[in-house]
Amino acid sequence: MPLKSPDTDELLRRTSHGSAAARDQLLMRHRNRLRKLIAYHMDRRLAARIDPSDVVQDVLIEAAHKLPEYMDERPLPFYPWLRQIACDRLIELHRQHVQAQKRSVRREEPGALALPDESLAELASRLVTSATSPSQRLLRKEIQERIRAALKRLPGRDREVLEIRHLEQLSVAETAAVLGISQAAVKTRHLRALQRLQEHLGQQEEK
After folding, report:
1. Assigned CATH class of 8-97
2. What is the CA radius of gyration of the chain?
3. Tens digit of pLDDT for each residue in 56-113?
4. Numbered ranges of CATH 1.10.1740.10 in the chain
């Protein structure tokens, strides 16, 4: 039976005792999650200029540099902390390579990145139940397009919690850390976002 890999807390403990191998393993175990995050949020104009894999590598290098400070303060759980570094890096790159004017690329909530159309479509797809038959798939596609349109009408805070939970697939605890609210508040915000999404879908049917 293969040995179980050390979890994040154990790797953090070993890192705090000076293990370079544990530090490297700690950063590498979250590489795929970071790659998906960056792929979801990276503006396509920016992706045409910069390889997303290079962004991941830059984030990991920065995280390694900041890790001693993180170990002392532990301001967030480890992955939400990494995620924040990645989001800040994307915002910085967008300002450098995409924006002609020095204005914020953030949505109405500080720290949030707008989703490109392709990622918004992926989020809509994940909010639709699976279908197997040709007629079901056709209906699923139609519903997906309606959800995509409804998502664009949601307030930023509603769309953000749906992105984090359904697209990035963060846990409730991780989402709470990212948003700076309690786990109970995450559940409430998530439920309200789904309700508002349903309301927009209902308004579409009435037209």
Report:
1. mainly alpha
2. 19
3. 999 999 999 999 999 999 999 999 999 999 999 999 988 887 764 445 444 433 334 6
4. 8-97
